[in-house]
Write a structure and sequence with these properties.
By secondary structure, this protein is mainly beta. Helix content is about 10%, strand content about 40%.
């Protein structure tokens, strides 16, 4: 589990194919901020742009680690197939503060940035989400964008999807990789965990007694 509070900004420095067929994934090498890996061990979970991955090798001297990402995960996410900046979050510990909201690290869909511009001291970020996620998006509800826990300020249902508006304060831009986004950028989205359970409970057909 995670919280959507980014603990570091890293960079994918290499993306090595694990085979020569579409069924093969990639091995990613990531460069981390100084001392970021000091409390990390092999097998630990770290979310990369909101996608939970497993540490497979560690280079403490260079502050680098690798993960193996499957072809399925590459097909269901954005920004994890080539070199670039990524948001990092270590897995939640039992005694940690829950500063954002409960996040599983499983990407539900890929959205597209339709607007990203400064408004006053903050920035307006608008994202077109897949229609399949529309029922989970609500005014003042929670959404994870590239691993960052954010609050939805507006929801507009459109013919080609669901557009949400989000306000980003300068602190968020300075301490995450969201500042690198631009119109047309693809982003990983994870809807609120509680909303998924509520939807399941409401859609389940009544059961007969004793079954």
């Amino acid at each position: 589990m995670f919280t959507g509070i980014i603990t570091g900004v890293g960079r994918i420095t290499a993306a090595q194919p694990l085979g020569d067929s579409p069924q093969h994934g990639k091995r990613l090498t990531l460069q981390c901020p100084a001392r970021y890996l000091d409390d990390v061990t092999l097998g630990d979970s770290i979310a990369l742009n909101g996608a939970c991955m497993t540490v497979t090798t560690l280079d403490m001297a260079q502050q680098q680690f690798t993960i193996d990402i499957s072809a399925e995960s590459l097909a269901k996410t954005a920004g994890l197939d080539a070199a670039g900046t990524v948001n990092l979050e270590k897995a939640l510990r039992a005694n940690d503060r829950l500063g954002g909201h409960l996040v599983s690290g499983h990407v539900d869909g890929v959205g597209r940035v339709t607007r990203f511009e400064q408004v006053g001291e903050s920035w307006l970020l608008q994202i077109l989400a897949p229609q399949s996620l529309a029922k989970y998006l609500a005014y003042k509800g929670s959404i994870v964008v590239n691993g960052v826990s954010l609050t939805v300020n507006r929801v507009d249902d459109l013919a080609d999807g669901c557009q949400m508006s989000i306000n980003l304060i300068p602190h968020t831009l300075h301490n995450t990789a969201l500042g690198t986004l631009a119109v047309g950028s693809q982003v990983n989205l994870e809807v609120d965990l509680i909303a998924r359970y509520v939807e399941r409970m409401l859609s389940e057909a009544p059961r007969k007694p004793g079954i």
